[in-house]
Amino acid sequence: MSPRKEEVTLKDIAEAVGKSVAAVSRALNNHDDISEETREYIKQVAREMGYAPTNTLGLILPALSPRDSDPYYSELLAGIAGAAAEREFDLLVSSCAPGPAEQWAYLRLINSRRVDGAIVARPRWRDSRIELLFEKKFPFVVIGDTNLTGNFLAVSEEAAAGAELVVEHLANQGHERIALVNTPLDLFFSSEFLVGFQRAMRRANLPVVEDFLTESDFTQRDGYRAGQTLLSKAETPTAIVAADDVVALGVMAAAQDQGLEIGQDLAVTGYGDILLAEYAQPPLTTVHRATYALGQQACRMLIARLLGEKLAQEQVIIKPSLVIRQSSDLALWL
């Protein structure tokens, strides 16, 4: 049975004419690298099928409780929405907890034909979301580092480089016992962050102590728990690297509850440079991730692909930078 007219997508037309989605998009948008004969043929098929673009992108966020909202997604969403508005595209946002239900959510997104393309954030190891979109030949863009290879759009941040920046900074401050509170290890970001952490420690001739490696989810509560665990050991670290700012704030709270002065008795660093990092007590040393720009760039690339426009790059890296504040050097107060 053929799709109902209001449900026809670029993928349907591509299958009908035996061309790629990109070629169909370029033909419908009158790009001259598609011959006039082919353009007219594709347009005729599109008209007969009742094609009408939705000009809508889909994004499925992980379901979070109100108390565990993640600033990363707020800023990322702002960047995506801003770029979508520039091209008069809409954004369909839904939420679903990771797991089997998430696969169904993506299938519904694809099969509902309400969106022209999808945005995937925080890739995981062998990410089933990306594999599904590949399998269905559905246009998408990935935001974040991934271990999957192939012909797809991606905007990444070099998590390993960010980890190296903070370790080098702490080593230069004279710290030798440096601990890591990583984010969940099913995320490829976390694996890359660990690689960068270990590489920088070896470069500084510092031991990577297994007892000083732990992980946390993206909440201040779990960061507090991880901080308490590290600070209750017989030998405690003099510096704690957290792979997320919210987690770092929890670590700082745990240390302060033990009577430690952050930046003097214990150095703490984060990752992300969220607004709260600058106004923490003391302000948090962190790695600046251009989250708004990541969302903005990813959205622009996906829309360009949907409209058949040529892209200078299909894989873009936005490099992180170090922001030094008082949580790693209390002397900055002076």
CATH class of the largest domain: Alpha Beta
Gyration radius over CA: 23 Å
CATH H-level homologous superfamily name of the largest domain: Response regulator
Q: Which architecture name of the largest domain does CATH use?
A: 3-Layer(aba) Sandwich
Q: Bin the helical content.
A: 40-55%
Structural class, by secondary structure, is alpha/beta
Low-pLDDT segments: 1-5
Estimate the global geometry from the Cα principal axes. Answer: elongated
Topology, element by element:
Elements lengths: L9 H8 L3 H8 L7 H14 L6 E6 L9 H16 L3 E6 L4 H12 L5 E5 L6 H8 L4 E4 L9 E4 L2 H14 L5 E5 L5 H16 L9 E3 L4 H12 L7 E4 L2 H13 L9 E6 L2 H4 L6 E4 L2 H16 L8 E3 L3 E3 L11
Parallel strand pairs: 1-2, 1-3, 3-4, 4-5, 5-11, 6-7, 6-8, 8-9, 9-10
Antiparallel strand pairs: 10-12
Helix pairs in contact: 1-2, 2-3, 4-12, 5-6, 7-8, 9-10
What does this structure look like?
The protein has 334 residues and is α/β, with parallel strands linked by helices. The chain has three domains: 45 residues; 131 residues, Response regulator (Rossmann fold, 3-Layer(aba) Sandwich); 143 residues, Rossmann fold (3-Layer(aba) Sandwich). 42% of the residues lie in helices and 16% in strands. The chain is built from twelve helices and twelve strands. Strands 2-1-3-4-5-11 form a six-stranded parallel beta sheet, with helices on both faces. Helix 9 packs across helix 10. The radius of gyration is 23 Å and the shape is elongated. The N terminus is likely disordered.
